[in-house]
Amino acid sequence: MWITSSLSTALTPTLVALGNFDGLHLGHRQVVQPILHKDLARQGSIRDKRIIQNPSCQELAARSPGNEGESGDRESAGGSREGGDRAYPSVVTFNPHPQEFFSGQRRILLTPPNEKVKQLEAMGVEQLVLLPFDRELAQMTPEEFVEEILIERLQAKRIAVGEDFRFGRHRSGTVRDLEAIAAPHGIDVFIVPLQTAENERISSSAIRTCLQNGNVQRANRLLGRPYSLVGTVVHGRQLGRTLGFPTANVQVPPQKFLPQYGVYAVRASWECDNGGPLPLPGVTNIGCRPTVEGNLEVSVEVHLFDYCADLYGKTLTVELVGFVRPEQKFGSLDALKAQIQADCDSARQILENADR
Length: 356
Ligand SMILES: Cc1cc2nc3c(=O)[nH]c(=O)nc-3n(C[C@H](O)[C@H](O)[C@H](O)COP(=O)(O)O)c2cc1C
Ligand SMILES: Nc1ncnc2c1ncn2[C@@H]1O[C@H](COP(=O)(O)OP(=O)(O)O)[C@@H](O)[C@H]1O
Prior knowledge:
Layout: E1 2-4, E2 14-18, H1 26-32, H2 37-43, H3 57-62, H4 74-79, E3 88-95, H5 98-103, H6 113-123, E4 127-132, H7 135-138, H8 142-153, E5 156-162, H9 175-182, E6 188-192, E7 196-197, E8 200-201, H10 204-212, H11 216-223, E9 228-234, H12 240-243, E10 248-251, E11 262-270, E12 280-287, E13 299-304, E14 315-326, H13 333-355
Parallel strand pairs: 1-4, 2-3, 2-5, 3-4, 5-6
Antiparallel strand pairs: 7-8, 9-10, 9-14, 10-13, 11-12, 11-14, 12-13
The structure holds flavin mononucleotide (FMN) and adenosine-5'-diphosphate (ADP).
Flavin mononucleotide binds at residues 236-240, 245, 247, 249, 263, 283, 285, 289-292, 301, 303, 327-329, 336, 340, 343.
C-alpha cells in the first residue's frame, strides 16, 4: 500500500473514503467498501446505489477480510469507471487527528498506524493519504477542502463518508454539503448510515468500553474480528521460565489502547519464512505485574501452550478471544504460579468453546 503525507506524491485519480477509522470496526468497513474495486465489480451500475442500507452484524462480518467469498476483477472494475482511468482506492485521513491538534493530547488508539495499514491492505485499499492537519487546513471552508484537496489535488472520482462526518472550518460542513459541492463535478458521494449491532451504534468508544469491562466477545463482534495487539518480542527479566511459564513480552506502540488489566485467552501468530504457524493458543497477561517487585511498567506477555521456541525479535499478533480474570497482587511467586496454571486451564476452555 502506498502511504503518503504529501498531496504532490499521492497516486491519482482516487476513490476516497474519508475518515479517521480508529479500530476499523464493522461500521468503518461499510464506509470503505464503496471504494474497493471488488465492490465496484459487484455493484454493476453504481449511480443508483449511493445510500447503503444497514446490514445485519452477521452480514457485515461476512464482508470482513478473509471472509470475502469473491475476489472481484480489479481490471474490469477499473475499466468500467467514468473516464476509464484507473482510480486508486484511497483512505484519506488527517494526521494528527484534529482533536489531537486542538487539545495537544496524544490519542490512545484501537488501531495504531502499524495495525491500521495491515487491516486496510487486507481489505484492498491501495493508498493511505495522511493529510497534515495544521492551522491552514483547519481554516479551510468546506468548499475549499472539497474543491482544492479532494477534487483538484486528489482527483477524487468517488467519495465515501459516514453519515456523521463533519469537515471544514469549525466542522461546519455536513455530508449534505459534501454532496452539494461534489455534484456539479459529477462525483459520486456515498453516505453510509451509522451501523448498529445488537441494538447499539457500532463505535470506537463502544468497543473501548467493552474492552475496559472485560467484554472481549462483544468488542470482537462490533469489530468483526478479534481485538489484537501487535508488537515485537523483547527481553524481560527471564523470570517466566523459572516459574514454568515462559512468556513472550510483546512491545506494543505507546499509543495502543489496552483493555482492562488482567488475563486473556488468546491466539498468537507471526510471520516466518515458511509462512508462519497457524495462530497458536495461549494465555496473555496485560498489566503491571504487581506481584513482581518494582515492576510498574505495563507489559503484554504471552505464554503459548505446549510450545517451545525462541521468539525474541519476532512480530507477534495477539488476538484476544476471552477474558479470564483481572490482574492481582499475590503474596508469593508460588501462589502466582498456581494461579497461572488455573488461568491456562480456563483459557483452554474459553478457546475450545470459541471454536465450536
Ligand atoms: C497467565 C498469567 C497470569 C498472570 N497474572 C499475574 C497477576 O495476576 N499478577 C502479577 O503480578 N503477575 C501476573 N503475571 C505475570 C508474571 O508475574 C510474569 O509472567 C512474570 O513476572 C515473568 O516475567 P518475565 O517475562 O519478565 O520473566 C501473569 C502471567 C501469566 C502468564
Ligand atoms: N511456550 C512459550 N511461550 C512463550 N514464549 C516462549 C515459549 N517457549 C519459549 N519461549 C521463549 O521464551 C521467552 C520467554 O521466557 P521468559 O523467561 O519469560 O523470558 P523474558 O523475561 O525475557 O520474557 C520468549 O520470549 C520466547 O523466546
